């Protein structure tokens, strides 16, 4: 049956991939909902995201990283190739607790690069191979399974495993960037009391999206391996 039940239903997909996909969908909805809610809460100091990111850079003694504005919503990121923190308009100019939390998180990534944080170096090293794996890994594995070509199947599995590995390494990178951000926010008094807790809530919601993405990749891997074993 190769993992299929009655009427050709793929029970491995239903039991493994669907719950992981629903978790990922909920995580995305949750992070957007939390962000929009906390974007309406202005911090007591009136500190903008751009100023908050600059304070984190100053705290770590980083002087060669620029802070720029980029279009879109939740498009905030740190570009290590250009040494630029790019913040969306609502974060760059906004004085909400969400803006401060997100801006400081991206500055946390800049601090990781400045201090040669090991997990981020590993993540960058496997990124090119991961891009290949995310494109052709899963289709190769599925095609190898369909035509019963074991070597092709395992090549696909190996390539797709790089995606899961990348997401696994990404977790400590993102969690550490948030920890750096919250530590500096707390130490410098940028946010206090409820403002601090609300910014922390935004970063926790964002972290769940990375956990959910890893769950989807692992579920797909396990599903295919079980299907191959049944075959």
The end-to-end distance, rounded to whole angstroms, is 7 Å
What's the number of domains? 1
Spans of at least 5 consecutive residues with low confidence: none
Could you say which structural class the secondary elements and strand pairing correspond to?
Answer: mainly alpha
Characterise this structure.
This protein has a three-stranded mixed β-sheet. It contains seven helices and three strands, in the order ααβββααααα. It has one domain (about 5-230). With about 230 residues, the protein is mainly alpha-helical. About 75% of the residues lie in helices and about 5% in strands.
Give a quick summary of the entry.
By secondary structure, this protein is mainly alpha-helical. The protein has helices at residues 11-39, 49-59, 89-92, 97-114, 118-146, 150-188, 193-230, and strands at 66-69, 77-79, 84-87.
Provide the descriptors you would attach to this structure in a database record.
mainly alpha, three-stranded mixed sheet
List the helices and strands and how they pair.
Blueprint: H1 11-39, H2 49-59, E1 66-69, E2 77-79, E3 84-87, H3 89-92, H4 97-114, H5 118-146, H6 150-188, H7 193-230
């Amino acid at each position: 049956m190769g993992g299929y039940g009655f009427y050709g239903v793929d029970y491995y997909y239903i039991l493994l991939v669907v719950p992981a996909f629903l978790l990922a969908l909920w995580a995305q909805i949750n992070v957007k909902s939390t962000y929009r809610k906390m974007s309406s809460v202005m911090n007591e100091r009136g500190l903008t995201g751009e100023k908050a990111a600059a304070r984190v850079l100053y705290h770590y003694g980083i002087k060669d990283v620029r802070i720029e504005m980029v279009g879109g919503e939740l498009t905030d990121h740190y570009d290590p190739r250009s040494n630029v923190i790019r913040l969306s308009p609502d974060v760059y100019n906004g004085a909400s607790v969400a803006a401060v939390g997100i801006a400081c998180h991206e500055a946390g990534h800049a601090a990781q690069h400045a201090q040669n944080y090991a997990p981020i170096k590993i993540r960058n090293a496997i990124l090119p191979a991961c891009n290949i794996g995310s494109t052709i890994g899963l289709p190769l594995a599925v095609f190898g399974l369909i035509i019963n070509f074991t070597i092709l199947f395992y090549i696909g599995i190996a390539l797709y495993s790089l995606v899961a590995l990348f997401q696994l390494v990404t977790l400590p990178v993102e969690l550490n960037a948030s920890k750096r951000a919250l530590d500096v926010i707390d130490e410098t008094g940028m946010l206090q009391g409820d403002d601090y807790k609300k910014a922390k809530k935004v970063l926790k919601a964002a972290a769940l999206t990375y956990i959910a993405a890893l769950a989807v990749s692992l579920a797909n891997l396990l599903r295919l391996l079980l299907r191959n074993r049944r075959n």
